[in-house]
Amino acid sequence: MNTFNARLGLLLFFIYLALYSGFVGLAVFAPGILATTPWAGVNLAILYGFALIIAAFALAILYGLTCRDENSSKGGEA
Amino acid sequence: MNHEQSFGAIAVFAAFVAFTLGLSFYLGGKAKSAKGYFAAEGEIPWFINGVAFAGDYLSAASFLGICGMIAFFGYDGFLYSIGYLAGWVVALFVVAEPMKRLGKFTFADALDSTFQSRGIKLVAGISTLAVSVFYLIPQMVGAGVLVEPLLGLPHYVGVIMVGAAVILIVVTAGMVSTTWVQFLKGGLLVVFSTVMVGMVLMRGFTATPIEDMPELAVLGPYSGGSYETELAAELEKHSLTVLPATGLWDTPDFVRLSAGPDAAPLVYSVSMSASGAITLFEAQTVEMVDGKKFVNGREQENVAGEDGVRHDLRPVGRILKLPDGETSTGPIGPLKFFSTLQQSTMMISSKKTLKFETDTIDVYFETPTLGSKLLLPGQYFTGIRTKLFSDKLNFLSLMLALFCGTASLPHILIRYYTVKDESSARKSTIVGIGTIGFFYVLSLYIGLGAMTSGALDVTNNNMAAPLLARSLAEWLFAVISAIAFTTVLGTVSGLILASAGAVAHDLLKEFGQMEFNDSEQVRVAKISSVVVGVVAIVLGIVFKEFNVTYLVGWAFSVAASANLPSLVMLLFWKGVTKQGVIAAVTVGMTTSLGWILLSADTFSKVYKIDPELAITPFSQPGLVTIPLGFLTLIVVSLLTKKRAE
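YS: structure for the whole thing
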């Protein structure tokens, strides 16, 4: 696989993997940080959790807007 | 009180099921060919397919299990939401387009696209069956759990009802009807969950201060040092006596009080605060005597007695203290919802089973818990707060399996064949991520709303969302229960279809090289659907006691270990050989299943033996078996490539 879409997908995948790993790492090794309340009296655990959900959708939209239709004609008949 | 039948709910439920089956019969004519049966002719519009992804994915575990886990344990249930959604990132960025490009009917098609190997068809088919069956068990258990309170029918009847309905759906129209059922259910689930969250926010929170609670529901607080003396003085005023702590009750955790020889004893849990003060909270008990269920010392009644009261467990789930001594918040904003709960104290329900010789009794009791503690990880996954490194690894292993599992689930992967091209596969996945992500945001509100609703059933955390709905409005309960049931129908039909594809297409036609024409292949798939459906019914009855969400976690581990390494490496490494794929699927599947069977959780929950005897160091296999699958594929591919050269 060396297409534009595949490379873009891998890049976005690694960005999200870093965000996800950061969250899981904090939950296990530094829970005190997740207990802080940086905004609106809501703790970082909830804010980070929601951010992960929103980030997944935002990156998905970015991927959708940037992708090229490279092999559509072959769809479904491989 | 929790299981009171609702005729409105039954009517809405019956209408939903009738409509679903009607739709299935109507669409039956579109599934004559194999491509129509397995892939809906590839003609499903991408938006419909995207919402159907959500319908497929938001299963009993997501809707009932996660909301229930949040309602009983707080934030930890939300960790499942985060993990399940993260898995979709892998599905979109890595798997979606190649799956559509390489395959035709099943996941094995894609895996085998460059090799045409019977061995790959065999192991991929078996892996599909194994994962699907693992995933089917919690769905069927969830069906029984729903029908029990809704229709007042035994658990096994619910399982048989779902099984029969699903077999009808799958046999009549295959992927076309399954897709529309999932679209319908996914859409309704998100819409009505949004309505429910809106109503929760409008209702706000109400505290139940100790002084306002019924007499003797709470005793104390007493000073820790001499609480027995203070308790005795208070009891004397009410002509109550403390019963001896013997037999089952030889524990400092509970105290039993008696109002006389004919009255059922009252059980209180002993709770110590950080300052050392002791408070006694009234607990509830459930025990089986001569095959009959006794609740709080009296036989459980399904109908109201002469006094007009139905004798059953009392509902739980409440706030003890709101911030600044408030008793009620009124309507509350989405962020204020969390900041208020963080500063509140909630009563969290727990269960303890007391055993003495052949007697056992389940005691359900509430413990005051700070909101700031409940809105952090570690209440359910207690292992991540211990110093034991293997406990932390267990949690990391689960989160890895959730991340890698989605893109390896056969019933999700086959949905890529229902749209016309790669662009549609991509767009439908984005719609799926949006829909599913939005629902998971709602899940935290629903779970915490249920935690503070005063409507929870202590014996069944899977019913948290429907019971929250009942506390808001009877019509909402009817609709949510019906959607929850359709949730099970949609997911089970997808799983059975994936299994039928594995049997008819991968194992019999491709591996067994049986000669089928198009319509014969569909007929074989329909017969396979009936067989898998019957197996699912039996397993749903046998595994009644299992935790729904936990089982799904295992299904993700097996899927990720068996399927993901081959799928990913095939796309990104030219050195993959067919022997490498066969070895990786076989090793991933057998080691993850073996790990689960030898784990402490299985020892204690399934075999009912000492978990200390378990062979594996922690229960979730993914952390070991997913890398092992990758490693096997690389090593075997390198070895067999050399031999070929």
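YS: worth flagging: Chain A touches chain B through 47 residues (CB under 8 Å).
IM: good catch. Also Residues 72-78 of chain A have pLDDT under 50 and may be disordered.
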